[in-house]
Amino acid sequence: MKKLQALLSLSLFFLILFGTLYFVSFDKEFYVNKFEHYNVYPQFEEDKTTINQEFFNVLDYLKYPWKNLESNFFNEKERAHLIDVKRLYLILEVILFLSLIVFIGSTYYFLKNKLVKSYTHSLILGSSLVLAFFLFLTTCILINFEQTFILFHKLLFTNDLWMLNPETDNLIKLLPEELFFYIAQRFVLWSSGIALLILLTSLLSIKFFHKKVRN
Q1: DSSP per residue, the chain
Q2: Among 69, 78, 181, 208, which is most buried by a count of CB atoms within 10 Å?
């Protein structure tokens, strides 16, 4: 039982974490708005429509395993880095899929056997883990976003292809550090909000369950 509860908590943790990251990463409308806000378009000779389409091609390439990136807009180093990023997103999608299966399966088991209290405690633990993780992440970002950003890339990549040059590489022109900071902020707020909602709902459910038992 304890192992199943731990699996449910971990599956919820990954669903919130990676599910929100997936949503934030591929929100095309968000990027268009931020390209305007951070004056990205004036850095290029191409018009806005072309710039948007080139970036949307990147998002589709990262999102769909069968997509290829056929464009001269990005140089060889950028395309090599995007291959590494695509691998990470493929891993993310696998973890998301497995977490969803575990979450649905364990939810079915707990509810079928009327183990509501154990199920709710697992949700509380999973959502609490998310909030604790983001408390730590937010602290790191506020103390030094640049160093956190660098450490994040060093942990995820085994090469230095991510160290792009804003003078020559279009990818970093499209995604300046300020934009990454805003993406990180949005990721934290969405994930924390979902986790907090689940946590509060679960705590209220526990309180209601105890009250019902006493009555």
Answers
A1: -HHHHHHHHHHHHHHHHHHHHHHHHT-HHHHHHHHHHTT-GGG-SS-HHHHHHHHHHHHHHHH-TT-----SSS-HHHHHHHHHHHHHHHHHHHHHHHHHHHHHHHHHHHHHTT-HHHHHHHHHHHHHHHHHHHHHHHHHHHH-HHHHHHHHHHHH-SSSTT---TTT-HHHHHS-HHHHHHHHHHHHHHHHHHHHHHHHHHHHHHHHHHHHHH-
A2: 78
Query: What is the per-residue pLDDT across 13-23, written as a single tens digit (0 to 9) for each?
Result: 999 999 999 99
Cα→Cα distances 9→105, 112, 195, 197, Å: 13, 18, 12, 15
Gap between the Cα atoms of 117 and 47, Å rounded: 57
Token code pair at residue 69: 């990136």
- pTM of the predicted protein model: 0.87
Segments making up each domain of the chain, as ranges: 2-214
